[in-house]
Structure formats: C-alpha cells, structure tokens
Amino acid sequence: MTGLLTARPLPARSKAFDLMFAGALFVSAGFLGLAYAQLGGVVGLAMVFPLIWRRTHPEAVFFAVSALAVLQWLANVQLQPGNIGLLVALYAISVYGDIRFSRIALGIGGLGVLMATSRYYASSDWREQLTIMVALGALVFGVWAIGERRRTRGLYVAQLEERAVQAERTRDRESKLAVSAERTRIAREIHDVVAHGLSIMIVQADGGLYAADQSPEAAKKALATIGDTGRASLTEMRKMLGLLKADEQNELDPNQPRPQPGVSSLPELIENVREAGLSVDYQVTGTPRDLPALLGLTAYRIVQEGLTNTLKHAGPGAQTSVSLDFGRDLLTVVVTDDGRGGGVAPSSEPGHGLVGMLQRASVSGGTVNAGPKAGGGYEVIAKLPYNLPNGGVA
Q1: What's the mean pLDDT in 189-206?
Q2: Collapsing DSSP states into helix, strand and coil, what is residue 205?
Q3: Taking 80 as the threshold, does the pLDDT of residue 339 lie above it?
Q4: What is the C-alpha separation between 119 and 255, in angstroms, rounded?
C-alpha cells in the first residue's frame, strides 16, 4: 500500500497541467467566493489550492480538502464555489489513490451529503431534502465511479503493456536459446565431419606408408583417397563455418531449412569407407519411407560415427555391417563389426562421438545402445521412432 505522503512519479508536463488547472479553479472559484463571504471565500480558496498535488498525493489532498469542508460545516459557512474541490479531490483519489482509501473516500463523500443536507437545506420539507440528498449522492457516487472506471482501464492498459514487454522478453530469450541450440548443432556437425574425415585419412596414410615400397600403385591410390577425403571434409566444414559466420551478421533461424545428409546419402558414405579399406555390408529391410530431415540426419550421423569408430578401433581386416530396418513405428539402425579394438586402450568415459549419438537420438525421441559384443567386436543399435517428440509425424 502506498503511504499518504509518498509521492507518485509524474512527468513535468503533467505537473504543469495540474498547476494550471488548480490555478484556474483558484481564480474562478476562490475569488468568486470572496465576493459573497469573506470567511467562506478563504475556505474556498484553501479547498482549491491543494489540488495542485491531487495526482502526486491524492490521499493527502482528499483528506485535507475534506477537513476544510468539515471546518466550513462547523462554522456554518454557506457552500461556496470552492466546494468543487471536494469533487475534484474525490475523483483524483479514485483514479490515482490506493483502492482502500478510495473506498473510504466514497464513504466520507456519502457522509458529507448527509451533513450538507441537514445543515444547508434544513428549512426545506422532507421531500425536497430527499430529492437534494439523492441528487448530491448521485453526483458524489457518479464522480467516484467515473474515476474508478478510469483506474480500472489504466490498470488494464498497464497489464497489457506488461504482457507485451514480457512477451518480447520471452521471444528474445527463446530466440537466444534457439541460436545457442543451432550453434551447438553446427558444432556437432563439424565434429562429425572432421572426425570421420580424419579417421579415413589416417587409415589411408598408414596403409599407403605400409604399401609404399611393395605396391606404389596402392600407395598412390591411398594418397588420392586422402586428398579426396580431405577436400570433401574441408568443403563441408567450410559450409558449417559459413553458417556461424552468417550468424555474426544475422541471427540464425533454426526453422530455416539447410541442406543436410540423410538416409539417401548413406550409400555414398559407405562407398567412401570401402575405398578406405574397410569391408562394409549394407542392408535395408522393410519398406523405405520418407523421413523428416532431423530423423534422416540423425540416422546418417549415427552410421557415420559407428563407421568412424570402426576405422579407429576395429583393427585391420575387420568386417563391418550396416543395416536399416524400416519398421511400422520406428527405424532401427545397426552398425556392427567383428574387430578387437586394434590395440586401443579402453576408456571408462564415453567418447564425444557416443555422447553425440545419444544426444541426437534423444532429440529425435529415440535411444542408442552401444557396447562390445559377446565374442568380440562392437555394436551400435539405434531405435528412432517416426513420431517426433513435438507431435510431428514422418
């Protein structure tokens, strides 16, 4: 609750208007009252003067003007033009004052009607007194009701403005979160591209070094594969970095479609891995169907990461298989090999590639299980439902 002496902030233009308004009443009502009665005119001037602060201190102004009206009643001074200040103060407290003080002011206004009727119209018959009482009461209540309606409308407008500001803040916050998510996605894409390309290049470099003396043609082929893989990875990475660079000039739009690999790109990926020297068996079962871009990209990256891990850890001569099963409700992706790790030391913590697969599957509403197979080798099984978490359907 706002205190009686607590000033409301008010623009300079409004202060100037209040001063001019009170001054006009002071001149027109106050001096007019001086012409009829000296004491009444002084009281009338005193009732108009506080209206300068009617918006900054509405409660104090109303109670001050009401006290002067009681003094006028006790002194048996006739009603003066300055009594208009009572209605102005009542309107001000109903618009700008605390709502509880506003209701108290209405009660005081009703009591003032009874006091004025009993004192100033005592000589009239009861019918005339009743008519005057009803008229004055309607005037007091009407002024208060108009002010209360303006207060309610002002609060409604203030709520709308606050909601608009809150909606703008929420939009900005969601936009920043979307940009952050898009940056994270691009970073994950860059990791997948670089990790896969480097794995193929390392395998080819090791094979070319081994075959350099015995089979120069094989060494040349390995070098050609390294060059092709490096250029392809560099081109794709430049595209990803171009998106980040574009974000410095314009905000990323996660809803804007971007060309991304999908299930249809898997044969080309597997062929590149085969050229790197890894034997890969690729099978598709079930009835293939069009997949959302996110789901197709998730399946592609899971296969890419599985093959990258095979190149890194399965060892030479490992047999690898990739299978896609288009079931009724979900797509099952399986990447398996029979290697023994190629001498790579096991780690108790999951690598970035596995974490990336888990995150991608989670975004698509699916699951990923990865681990060693019984009898040797490694297996990755991903189950990706067609029904997306946000309600979209493939």
Answers
A1: 68
A2: helix
A3: no
A4: 76
For the chain, helix, strand, coil in percent to 5 are 65, 10, 25
User: Is the CB of residue 294 less than 8 Å from the CB of residue 363?
Assistant: yes
pTM higher than the cut 0.70:
no
SS3 sequence of 111-159: HHHHHHHHHHCCCCCHHHHHHHHHHHHHHHHHHHHHHHHHHHHHHHHHH
Average pLDDT over residues 187-214: 68
- pLDDT score at 381: 93
CB atoms within 10 A of CB 187: 13
Distance of CA 354 to the CA centre of its chain: 31
The C-alpha atoms of residue 95 and residue 261 are separated, in whole angstroms, by 64
Average pLDDT, integer, range 156-168: 82
Angle at 344 between CA 339 and CA 350, to 5 degrees: 95
With 80 as the cut, is the pLDDT of residue 96 above it?
A: yes
Is residue 27 within a helix (H) or strand (E), and if so which, with residue range? none
pLDDT tens for residues 21-69? 665 666 566 555 555 555 556 776 777 778 888 888 889 889 988 888 8
Residue tagged 């047999």 (tokens): 319
The CATH number of the domain covering residues in 279-342+349-394: 3.30.565.10
Instruction: Give domain limits for the chain.
Output: 12-167, 279-342+349-394
Distance CA 112, CA 350 (A): 82
Report in angstroms the alpha-carbon separations of 206 from 199, 230, 310, 338. Answer: 11, 15, 15, 21
Cα(297)–Cα(205) distance, integer angstroms = 29
**143-144-146 Cα angle (round to 5):** 65
Question: What is the band of 237 on the pLDDT scale with cuts at 50, 70, 90?
Answer: low
**Cα-Cα-Cα-Cα dihedral sign, residues 266, 268, 272, 275:** positive
Structure tokens at 60: 């104090």
Residue 286 tokens, joined:
């079930």
Mean pLDDT value of segment 321-338: 92
Q: Which two tokens stand for residue 8?
A: 């409301």
